[in-house]
Amino acid sequence: MAASAKVWSDPVTQFASDVRAGLCGKGQKELPSKYLYDPLGFALFEVITQLPEYGLTRADERLLRSHAQEIVRHVPSPALVSELGSGSGRKTRWILSAMCEREPVSYYPIEISRAALASCAAELGDVGCAGIVGVEREYLDGLGEVAALRTGGASLLVLFLGSTIGNFDSGADARFLREVRSILAPGDSLLLGADLLKPLERMLDAYDDPLGVTAAFNLNLLGRINRELDGDFDLRQFEHVARFNEATSSIEMHLRSKRRQVVNVRRGGFAAPFAADETVWTESSHKYTRREIAKLAVTCGFRMEAQWVDDEWPFAENLLVAV
Ligand SMILES: C[S@@+](CC[C@H](N)C(=O)[O-])C[C@H]1O[C@@H](n2cnc3c(N)ncnc32)[C@H](O)[C@@H]1O
Known about the structure:
The protein is of the alpha/beta class and 323 residues long. Helices cover 36% and strands 26% of the residues. The strands form 3 sheets. Strands 2, 3, 4, 5, 6, 7, 13 and 14 form an 8-stranded mixed beta sheet that branches. Strands 1-12-9-8 form a 4-stranded mixed beta sheet. A two-stranded antiparallel ribbon has the order 10-11.
């Protein structure tokens, strides 16, 4: 996390500061994708995972369901399980259940979304032997806290599912994984889900569905600014755009201003001007190749222990071990 991010203790002040930096500078306007997940954004994301066009979550779940026993066999016992950005935790059931067959397990989902943590506790509460302790923190702060809890030589299994790693900008994924590695001990495991490159139309449909759920998810970020920062965005004057950036091999989500306009963000004490057709970049989803993931693992201090790829929707589940 950048040092400046720690200056603010009040999350609203931090949000206002990030929105101002993203909308009032020169060049491409940009908002951090973590702000997509307020309670309404989290609920909309859950609907996205059910869409016929969004095969990613189903592929991730198929792999976890089919290979959970095998994955867990690679993890030294006893182990704590933690998950970065767990969301509802629905897919995690398979791993926790497999862990529970050999020993009781403590599970620490790390989330910035309180709604996600509540949903996760409800979703996984019936997995008998798993004690669930939600950690409402940013990824690395939360992981540091969880790592400090281990006792008696326990290892750590960190889950980073759903290809959330792809939301980091080009190069930032490696920086992030190196930071994760620096918190881990040799022998700890990282189960990393990564969406793979596939035909363009399939990728674009997944981020621009005909029901408009992804558009609502994206536009809700402006709604959130209105609600939390007393903004006056007219959501009808912006539209959702999904496009593929060949150079970075990423689907990018943007919000395009339909006309020239000025938007006031009163709690932030600023106004943001928009030209007609100007966009705000809200999320990237990098699409990996299998070889790229293997290289990323090694350059970040892991070895690739095993990799499983889904037959229906190119997606890789990667078990990395800290060296
Ligand atoms: C793309 S969703 C994936 C959810 C789930 N892992 C899945 O595979 O369906 C990303 C999740 O990470 C959380 N998140 C995003 N940025 C975060 C951050 N910096 N620290 C902690 N959680 C974060 C969001 O609240 C959201 O629930």
